[in-house]
Amino acid sequence: MTQPLTPADAGALHARLRAEGKTIDALPLVAAAVTAARLERHEDALALARAAVVAEPQNARAWALIGQASEARGALEEARTAYEHACSLDGHDFGAALAAARLQQRTGQHGRARALCGFILARTSSPDVRQQTSELLGTLGDAA
Amino acid sequence: MSIERTRRAPRVPVSPVGTPAVVEPTITTRTAPASGVAGTGWSADGVDSGPRPSSNAGTPGTSLPAATTHAEVTDPARARDAAAGLASSSDPAVRAVGEDAQTALARVQKAGQLEIPIRLQVTTGKNNRSLPLDVPGILRESAPGRVTFYPADESLRPFDVDSAQAAHLPRDVPVNARSSKKSLTFDEGGVTQKASLYVVQKAAPGVGAQQFTAVVDLVGGAPHARALGVSPPVLFPIQGAVPAEGTVVSVQLTSEKAVVSGEIAAPGTPKARVWEVADAQRLDAIFSPRALEETAAIQQAPGFDDAALLDLTQKPFFAIDNPGSKDIDQAMYLEKTPDGGFVLSYALADAAYYIKPGLALFDEAMERGSSYYLPGMSVPMLPPALSDGVISLNAHETHRAMILKVRLDKNGMVQGEPEVQRARIHSQAQLTYAGVSAELKGQGRIAADERGHAVPQAVREQLLIFQELGGKRQEQARQRGVVEPARFDTEIRVRGNAFSLEDTKADYASALNAEMSILANVAGAQATAISTVIPGLEVPGIYKTHAQPPPSAFRALRRQLDVTVEQNGMPAVWKWQKEETLSAYVERLKTLPTDARSARFSIVLQGLTVRINSPAQFEGQPAIHSGLQLSHYGRFTAPMREQVGVVSHAVLFAKTALENAVRGGHLDIATAQKVWPHLLLATLVDPNTAPDPARRAALATFAALVGAAPSELAARSAAVAAAANNGLTDLSEAEKRSVDGVMKRAKDTGNLSKQRQGQVEGAARKLLFDDLFQKDLGGNPEAGHKAPVREGTIAQVAPGKLYVLLDEPDVELRLNLEDLQAGEAGANYVLDQDAAELVKTGGEPTSSRLLVGARIKVKASHHDGDRLRFSVVR
Prior knowledge:
The structure holds 2 protein chains of 2 kinds. By secondary structure, chain A is mostly helical.
């Protein structure tokens, strides 16, 4: 449980599951992880979301939940990787993208954070997301 | 050899189709979870207790996919099943993940808080969607004492219904399961669960027509005609000759049986595939009998001789559209003034006169939102007898029109306020963009218009004014800072037995025409929003708005452009210079290319400059349209193709009528202000819904002002004033809600239909790609290793996504994370270099770069049953 689960790990575990002829429905696990996250039961949310990505490695929502739970636990690298994976799978989840950019900034990847902010600004029409992204860009040397 | 497309799975065999019976109205049932339900103690949650469902452990012998059918089910058992499935793995690592999940579930559940309130999306193959309102299908005895409902949509799982209550329902004929929009909670092993309720009805809803287009579909092994584009889908057993499954046919209904009256498209042909897209998008091509009756009545009395109309039939109006267009929304007439200025009279089909609240035509147009366009066919918002006939501004015929009259100075700057008139016109030519482009560029004179008539000299003279004014408006647009990347007018067309992408070569005239259209939409929006005649008039409108990107987005764009130019080794002249407007930069980019490579690079950079814009939206308040750099912008120019146009016209005509009454001295301002909400109500809401005859009469009096001829204006204004002084009070709250509701619905349906058209175009692109690249896979969906390598330029990058502009054919491909990973599950692709580069993280390191503007090689990898997939050739 304490070891991070990377996208490569999830893919490998999923492959083994498939080799056994098993197909697991990820949706109820994602739904349960959402409930756990809402209750701020981050360990439980993480366990459920990890199970969901083993069942379905392409599930963007599950990766975003792993990011959220990992960040809450202070596991910033795992959180960043998970958020990055979530926004690669779902280009419309600007919440995950903004969270990824914030973690990139916190983990010293300023260039990538700035690139992701530029992407978000070009795609979102949400004034709130734009505002938050602009503020983050401001901390990354976005000179006027 | 074509790529094999996904076919519908055959249904379980059923007994011969029987005759529909009159049955008890309904029974209640529920969608069955995949794991089955063995619950007890059902309790009602706002609804009457339903019968306990029989378990659905799947139907033996079926080949139906086991897609889940419950979208809003709180089902901890499913989560437990999933976790248990992982925990039972023979692989220790997988097992550990499953056991952790089981422990977590137990902990959350112990807290008594395992609610799953999110809306689960039903995953059916590649598409996510929620449960439909209606699920047509058939009922049959699947086992002794067991009645199963088989949905016509093969992606939905069959479910059992209570056999006792189903006893009265007909077997083996089309029935419909309609969502009650209610949920039921029940107890399963001490855990509260929730399920959607469906009600099986005696028959599927009718299509509302005796003749319609359908596809031959085997349901339960029996041939049925499934009405195309109808939502919910409707099935009829076929009587008589049965064409092959998948054939698109025209059908005549006789006693609830479908008789095939003609074949429209053979299975697998482009025409059939387009119908398939229309069907999948639920584009309803069938109008109700009531709407068709109303259409016939309109044809009988089209109102062309209305005394209220300004007679402009002698003016040489003309229209420009695509070749073969039948629904002509717009025509124009231009004049030069002695001081070098212009007067544009832009005529728009008077749809609001015909499509009024209270009519089925109005309701159905509101439901559709707009017409939809697919390769080689369209699904119109209005019956073709109207949109191609009575209402359309067809050349060489007299028709009603809204005229938006705009005066401009010699530089093309708008002068004064626009005028709004209701007129009768007789367009003298229906021209095409290509024909007008050729004539204006001196590349060929138009021999005859689309209807085979010679083009009058007066129209040719008009074209010169059109060219002059259009050019000046384009210059105005540049001065406003409008960014105009190079236009590539292409269209997906059906050629022979395949789809092809064709250059419409219409750029010049269509760009000029766009300027006229913009002028008309601005005029309409301003005329709606601003009243100098009746101060303080609050006029609801529908405006097209386009939010300005924030300054930080422009700064990010500048960095992205800088990096793209530098990293590709291009000279600094390609950069967006300081102090240079974005519009000027884009114009300069068009002049920089010196070879094919730099021409592609220019297109890529131009593309980046417009990608910072978010999509335009319909809103209820005027706001900036940043794409056009305009403060007021409406959508008046497609009233037969967009319901927004119908409603916008109706409001503007009402306002204009009231202003005319005040201008003419027939109504004072105070009375006009008092009357206005009532006139609006009479305009937008069916007057027959008014609570009493006196109120209906008053509303009719107000409504009559809108259609007043000049000679009638004084009398009708007097009647309005009398009604106003006869104890007229403010609108009731219910009336206000009705008015607001119509405006909101029109706005929302406008936004929704735009999204829908985007989906239609996306589906059409898939058809195009299947055909454009079918040789690449040699007819074998998995034969990517043999596919030829194609070259292109990286047009843009996004997290996990790469967009490639191919050299040949001239299309843009999108590669998703899965395509980029090429089996390397741990690899991810993140943005770097100010969003100019996609960088691989995880997986094996690579030296190849994915840089915007760089050359790249790709090839078709496989067809996943939904669309063709591509991979990068490293």
